[in-house]
Design brief:
Number of strands: 0
Shape: flat
Length: 155
């Protein structure tokens, strides 16, 4: 069974949310490896850059919800995010490195090559003309409103 990048990112987000309450680091690594293994090979590039951001968003959601009842919500949010991210930093680095290695094994270079080809085909080729295009008639002429005072009819 293969899923799209959106499905794999959603799976990783749910695992990261669950990990905020149990074991954030190890569940992050397991979620990243599962997402990389289940994604379509053409979506590897999208997925391989997403895990740290997905973890950050999951941690942010949980910390906002836990900071709502605090006396100083902003201080609680800042301290909670700092604590969570600093405690899980080695797991984030390890999970990201493992994701990159597994994605490379599954065909990340081909995914990058296909993305480059798609981008190259979407952008029109530049014109190779040595001549300049003529400006439209009257493009730089100032607009004059009304008539000159001498040409106005006398009343």
């Amino acid at each position: 069974m293969k899923v799209t990048a959106r499905g794999a990112i959603t799976l990783l987000f749910l695992v990261c949310l669950l990990g905020q309450f149990v074991l954030a680091g190890p569940l992050f690594v397991v979620g990243v490896l599962a997402a990389i293994w289940l994604v379509n090979p053409r979506d590897l590039l999208t997925l391989v850059v997403s895990p740290p951001l997905v973890f950050f968003v999951a941690a942010f959601v949980v910390e906002i919800l836990s900071a709502l009842g605090a006396d100083s919500a902003l201080q609680s949010l800042g301290l909670g995010m700092f604590t969570t991210l600093s405690a899980v930093a080695p797991w984030l680095f390890a999970g990201s490195a493992l994701a990159l290695g597994l994605a490379w094994y599954r065909g990340l270079p081909q995914s990058v090559k296909a993305t480059r080809e798609d981008m190259r085909n979407r952008v029109p080729a530049p014109r190779r003309s040595k001549e300049f295009d003529a400006e439209p008639e009257g493009y730089f002429e100032p607009k004059v409103y009304g008539t000159v005072k001498e040409e106005r009819p006398q009343t």
